[in-house]
Design a protein that fits this description.
Blueprint lengths: L1 E5 L2 E5 L5 H7 L23 E4 L6 E2 L10 E3 L3 H14 L17 H9 L22 E3 L9 H10 L5 E3 L6 E3 L13 H5 L5 E3 L12 E6 L8 E7 L2 E7 L12 H5 L13 E4 L2 E4 L2 H12 L4 E5 L5 H13 L5 E2 L29 E5 L3 H4 L1 H12 L4 E5 L10 E4 L9 H4 L5 E6 L8 H14 L3 E2 L2 E2 L1 E4 L5 H7 L10 H8 L2 E5 L14 E6 L4 H5 L2 E4 L8 E4 L5 E4 L12 H11 L9 H11 L42 H5 L1 H11 L3 H5 L1
Parallel strand pairs: 1-5, 15-16, 15-24, 17-18, 17-20, 18-19, 20-23, 24-25, 25-26
Antiparallel strand pairs: 1-2, 3-4, 3-5, 6-9, 7-8, 10-11, 11-12, 13-14, 13-26, 21-22, 27-28
Length: about 675
C-alpha cells in the first residue's frame, strides 16, 4: 500500500493504482473522457491532468502510477489552465449542435465544458466535417461530434470481443468507424451508446424522441434473458421510451444485451387490452364478468392443467398454483421446452458458482450452449476472465464463436465424461450446462452426466460449486423454485397436450406450438401479446408485461430480484395475479389474499427462498449425490436459439428486433451502407 497526499488529504491506496484512483479515494472529482474503469487505459484525452510535486509539468492522472509519499494537487492555477486548454482543443472541431443532439442533458462534454472550460474560444477557422458511418440498425452515428476518446474501440475489442471499431488516419484527420461500413455483430453493441461521452454514438430507435428531464425513471430487472440484469425503465406519458442498464457488479456490472435494451417497442404492439370469449367458433370482445363466466362453464367438472411461460413473475405463478390446488389439480408445468430438470434440489438447476464466480474459474467446459446468444453479459464475463489469463474453455456441442478461444471437445453427450481430462489440474473447474442440452429425450441423462463430470473434476467441494445450468429467460428459475411442476399424480406438459386434461390454462405460455393442443380442449390464455396460443384460446384474459407490474423474478444463479411497475397495463389489462385472484372467486375457490403484500407473505412462508432478496448462491457443495439419470443418446447437441433477436412475444412484436433479424440473419453490408 502507498500513502499519497491529495490536496492535503492523506489516503492509502494499493501499489500500482493510478493517481486518478487515488484522487477518487480522497473524494476529489477528476474530469475525464477517455478513462473508464472497466476498459484499458488510453491516456489520450488529457482532461484528467493534475499537478504532482517536483514534476516538471502536469501529468495525466489516469495513466500515472502512485508512489509512496507522492503529493498531488488537483486544483491549482496550472491545473485549471491546463484543463481549459484541453477543453479548448476538444471544442475546436466539435459542432455546436447541442439543441438537436440526443445526448443533450446527459452529455459529459457539456458538463465538463461548463465546470472546467473557458468562457470563450479563440478558434476562427472552419471546423472539420466527417461522414457519418453505418454501424447497424441500433446505433446512430454523428461523427462530427467524435472527440477521439476511443472508448468504443476499446469496448468492442476488450469487452465485446468483436474488434470491429477502429481508427483510420491521424491527428485532426482521424476517423472512428468500422473501416468497411457494416453492422456491428456484437450482441452488446448498445453499450457503446452509454460509453460515448458525447453525442457521436446515440440510440437510433430513440433518436429525437425525448429529453432526459422529461422522463420518469423506474428501477427494475430484465427478464428477456436469465442473467437478471439491473435495468432502468424510462417512461413518458405512459409509454416506455428506453431501457438502460444499472450497475450491479455481482450480476451485469454495467452492461446490457441488445435484445434487452432495444426490444421495448414490442411492449406496445400486438397487445391484448381487453378480454375475449369464443362464441360460435369466433373470438369476440367481452367484459371481465363474461370472460369469467365462460371460464366457469368451460372448466366445470373437467380435469384442468396449467402451463406457465418463460417470463412470468413468481407471484402470478404462486396464485395460479394455489388456485389449481384448491380445484384438486396437480397438473402443472413450466418447462415449455420439455427440459428434463430434476427439481429435488436447487443446485441441480442453478448457476451455482454465481455469475461473479466466473472470475475465480480457471477451466470451463460448455455443454450444449452458446452463452454469447443465450446470455451475452455472462459471456462477456467469461471473456473478461479469459483476458486476465489462466483460463481455458472447452466446448461440447456445435462449433460457435464465443469471442474467445475455445477447445472443441466433441459434439454430443458421449464426450461429457471424457471432458474430465480437459479439466484435470484446474483449481476451480466449472461446468456450464445449457438449458437446451436438457430439452432432449435423454435430458435427464445429460444432467446426470454433467453432474458426474463436475464431481470427477473436483468441482463439487465445500468451498466451490462448479456445476452451473444456464437458463434462457428470467421466469424459468423462479417457477422451478416455486415447484410449478407436476405434483403427485400430476401430468407434465407433454401429457397434457396429448389429451390428458380437458381444460388448459396458459399463463403467458407462447413457447410451444399451439397446434399441439387437442381440438376438444377448453383453453384459457392469460398473457399480454396476441400470438398463436391466444388465437387458439376459448377465453383470453389480458395481462401485464414485465414493465407493467411489481413482481419477483429469479435469475439463473438463483438470485431473487424485484421488478417494479413503470407504466400501467394498456386498456382493461390487469396484473396477472389479480386476474387469477378474481377468477378463483368465480370458480368458488377464493384465494386467501387481496393485496400484493399478503400474497408475498404467503408465498414467502411457503417458499422461504423468495424472502432472500438480492442474495447470491450459497458457496460450496456439501452433498454431491447425483440426480436421477438414464441412457445417453447419440445425437449431437443442437442450440435452442438460432435467432437472438426474436425469442419471445415481446421481441417478436418489436419492429426494431425485426429489423435486426433482417440485417444480421441476411447480411448485406454494402447495400446497408448505401
Amino acid at each position: 500500500m502507498a500513502k499519497v497526499t491529495i490536496d492535503g488529504i492523506e489516503v492509502e491506496v494499493p501499489n500500482g493504482a493510478s493517481v486518478l484512483q487515488a484522487c477518487e479515494a480522497a473524494g476529489k472529482e477528476i474530469p475525464r473522457f477517455c478513462y473508464h474503469e472497466r476498459l484499458s487505459v488510453a491516456g489520450n484525452c488529457r482532461m484528467c491532468l493534475v499537478e504532482v510535486e517536483k514534476a516538471p509539468k502536469p501529468i495525466a492522472s489516469c495513466a500515472y502510477p502512485v508512489a509512496d509519499g507522492m503529493k498531488v494537487f488537483t486544483d491549482t492555477p496550472v491545473v485549471r489552465n491546463a484543463r481549459r486548454g484541453v477543453m479548448e482543443f476538444l471544442l475546436i472541431n466539435h459542432p455546436l449542435d447541442c439543441p438537436i443532439c440526443d445526448q443533450g442533458g446527459e452529455c459529459d462534454l457539456q458538463d465538463q465544458a461548463v465546470s472546467y472550460g473557458k468562457d470563450g474560444s479563440r478558434y476562427r477557422e472552419e471546423k472539420r466535417s466527417v461522414k457519418d458511418k453505418y454501424v447497424g440498425p441500433l446505433i446512430k452515428t454523428i461523427m462530427n461530434r467524435c472527440i477521439h476518446c476511443t472508448r468504443c474501440i476499446r469496448f468492442s475489442a476488450e469487452v465485446a470481443g468483436t474488434p470491429e471499431m477502429g481508427a483510420t488516419n491521424r491527428g485532426e484527420s482521424m476517423e472512428v468507424g468500422t473501416y468497411i461500413e457494416k453492422a456491428l455483430t456484437s450482441e452488446l453493441s448498445g453499450n457503446l451508446i452509454d460509453l460515448c461521452p458525447v453525442g457521436a454514438l446515440t440510440s437510433r430507435p430513440y433518436a429525437f424522441v425525448s429529453r432526459p428531464w422529461e422522463l420518469r425513471k423506474t428501477d427494475s430487472v430484465d427478464v428477456l434473458d436469465a442473467t437478471g440484469a439491473a435495468i432502468r425503465v424510462d417512461v413518458r406519458g405512459g409509454e416506455v421510451l428506453r431501457i438502460l442498464p444499472r450497475n450491479n457488479d455481482d450480476v451485469n456490472e454495467e452492461w446490457l444485451g441488445d435484445r434487452s435494451r432495444f426490444a421495448f417497442d414490442g411492449l406496445k404492439r400486438k397487445r391484448l387490452d381487453r378480454p375475449w370469449v369464443r362464441r360460435d367458433g369466433k373470438l369476440a370482445p367481452a367484459s371481465w364478468a363474461e370472460a369469467f363466466g365462460a371460464i366457469v362453464q368451460g372448466v366445470r367438472g373437467k380435469t384442468i392443467g396449467a402451463i406457465a411461460g418463460d417470463t412470468v413473475e413468481v407471484e402470478s405463478l404462486f396464485a395460479l398454483k394455489a388456485m389449481l390446488a384448491a380445484m384438486g389439480s396437480t397438473n402443472l408445468d413450466c418447462r415449455q421446452d420439455g427440459a428434463k430438470i430434476d427439481t429435488s434440489r436447487p443446485d441441480y438447476y442453478l448457476f451455482n458458482s454465481g455469475i461473479a464466480g466466473i472470475d475465480k474459474a480457471d477451466a470451463i467446459v460448455v455443454i450444449g450452449s452458446n452463452p454469447r446468444v443465450e446470455a451475452p453479459v455472462i459471456n462477456a464475463r467469461i471473456r473478461k476472465r479469459w483476458a486476465l489469463g489462466g483460463l481455458r474453455v472447452g466446448m461440447i456441442g456445435p462449433e460457435v464463436d464465443l469471442t474467445y478461444p475455445t477447445t472443441r471437445l466433441g459434439a454430443g453427450p458421449g464426450e461429457i465424461a471424457r471432458a474430465a481430462e480437459f479439466l484435470s489440474g484446474a483449481k476451480n473447474p466449472m461446468i456450464l450446462l445449457g438449458r437446451g442440452a436438457l430439452a432432449r429425450v435423454d435430458g435427464a441423462a445429460v444432467l446426470a452426466a454433467a453432474w458426474d463430470l463436475a464431481k470427477a473434476s473436483g468441482a463439487l467441494r465445500e468451498d466451490w460449486h462448479g456445476f452451473n445450468v444456464l437458463h434462457q429467460f428470467g421466469g424459468q428459475v423462479g417457477a422451478l423454485d416455486l415447484g410449478f411442476v407436476p405434483g403427485q399424480g400430476g401430468l407434465d406438459m407433454a401429457a397434457m397436450l396429448a389429451g390428458g386434461v380437458e381444460a388448459l390454462w396458459l399463463l403467458g405460455a407462447d413457447g410451444f406450438d399451439a397446434a399441439r393442443i387437442p381440438a376438444d380442449t377448453f383453453v384459457v390464455y392469460q398473457g399480454h401479446h396476441g400470438e398463436a396460443a391466444a388465437a387458439r384460446a376459448d377465453v383470453i384474459l389480458p395481462g401485464a408485461a414485465y414493465t407493467e407490474k411489481d413482481g419477483t423474478w429469479v435469475n439463473t444463479e438463483g438470485r431473487v430480484q424485484r421488478g417494479r411497475m413503470a407504466v400501467t397495463p394498456p386498456g382493461e389489462a390487469r396484473e396477472d395475479w389479480r386476474v387469477i385472484r378474481a377468477a378463483s372467486q368465480f370458480l368458488g375457490v377464493t384465494l386467501p389474499f387481496d393485496t400484493l403484500d399478503a400474497l408475498r407473505a404467503e408465498m414467502t412462508a411457503a417458499h422461504p427462498v423468495f424472502g432472500r432478496i438480492d442474495q447470491g448462491p450459497l458457496p460450496g457443495c456439501t452433498d454431491d449425490a447425483s440426480p436421477a439419470g438414464g441412457v445417453l443418446g447419440g445425437a449431437s447437441f443442437e442450440l435452442p436459439i438460432q435467432n437472438y433477436w426474436q425469442v419471445d412475444p415481446i421481441t417478436r412484436a418489436s419492429a426494431t428486433m425485426a429489423e435486426c433479424a433482417s440485417v444480421y440473419l441476411n447480411p448485406q453490408p454494402l447495400l446497408a451502407a448505401e
